[in-house]
Amino acid sequence: MQVAAAIIACLSGLGLALVVGVRLLPEAGWQLPFDLRFFGYSFETAEGYLTAITPLGRDWYGGPFRVLDTLFPLSVGLWLSLLALRRGRGLAASAAAGAATLFAAADLSENYTLMQLMAGPLPPDAALVVQANFLTMAKYGLILLAFVLLAKSWVVKPQAKRGSETNGK
């Protein structure tokens, strides 16, 4: 299952890159989609994107892009969780699996919020922009945390169990 999740993550990631490069960027005046703005965005930036994206771009955003952007976080979250729990050690491995799961949940929540923004009127609802922006930054923070904890779980040295010390005897 770990290999299957990794393959799905890679294929959906490649599909996302293709859809963004071929359709979403040209259909939005070469502005990055909300999902790819690592440091978030302001109300003005969100309004600018929603004004710039064409009806065809909106169709692609809500269609192929959304399908791939559902598969991607689910498969990445599953893959990292399995990798951490099967190959990691200690509390860091469990925390990495938890962060990976929270990443998937944050990304899916972001997707739902962004679809509300895309379907809504202009100007967009300020509360939705704040919520989507928070979820965008949270998902990137959580995936970074998952990778850091996963790396830590690989370098953790096993500790001796209590009572197993012989004190030289």
TrEMBL record:
TM regions (residue ranges): 65-84, 91-108, 128-151
Protein name per the record: DUF1772 domain-containing protein
Keywords of the record: Membrane, Transmembrane, Transmembrane helix
Protein's organism: OCS116 cluster bacterium
Keyword Transmembrane helix: yes
